[in-house]
């Protein structure tokens, strides 16, 4: 696992991949957001685009599984997160991971949680640098285990979310001081 300097091209890659998804599955995607560290210009990131899609209905998304797979995605179902559909896209030649796709029904609290956290990092360089330092710490502890790396970061993220006004199962809007 590597953390690389921000690539300004990641935003364009996220936009292009969102278009691929929209073309593959018609109008089921209400919105597709670029999230995760590649969406934060000031920090290092794993070079994998994280996208979060909002859909009206997960059953409709499930019915379009074949269309999403035809766009190069591997369907992983909930993959440990209730009320989510998770897909990955790897480069067909090298096998290198390119995209993580997280899908939720519109109104799911996870949508706001991810967007508010992304926007907090974009707006607050001090917190973004601290997050980058935590990512480096977790990478050193778990260089070959991306699941352990993600679990390692989770406590730090949850502490920041609590301090920013997040409440379990509900997300408060950003405080005025942001």
Care to describe what's here?
The protein has helices spanning about 10-25, 60-65, 65-70, 110-125, 125-140, 145-165, and strands at about 30-35, 50-55, 75, 85-90, 95-105, 165, 170. With about 180 residues, it is α+β, with helices and mostly antiparallel strands. Strand 3 (about 75) and strand 4 form a beta hairpin.
List its salient traits:
44% helix, disordered C terminus, 178 residues, single chain, 7 strands, 6 helices, alpha+beta
The helix count comes to 6
> Order of strands in the sheet with the most strands?
1-2-5-4-3
Q: Report helical residue fraction.
A: 40-55%
Head-to-tail CA distance between termini: 32 Å
Structural class, judged by helices and strands? alpha+beta
Count the beta strands.
7
Which percent band covers the strand fraction? 15-25%
What is the N-to-C order of secondary-structure elements (H for helix, E for strand)? HEEHHEEEHHHEE
Shape: globular
Mean pLDDT comes to 91
* Main sheet properties: 5 strands, mixed
Computed Rg: 16 Å
Short description, anyone?
The chain has about 180 residues and is α+β, with helices and mostly antiparallel strands.
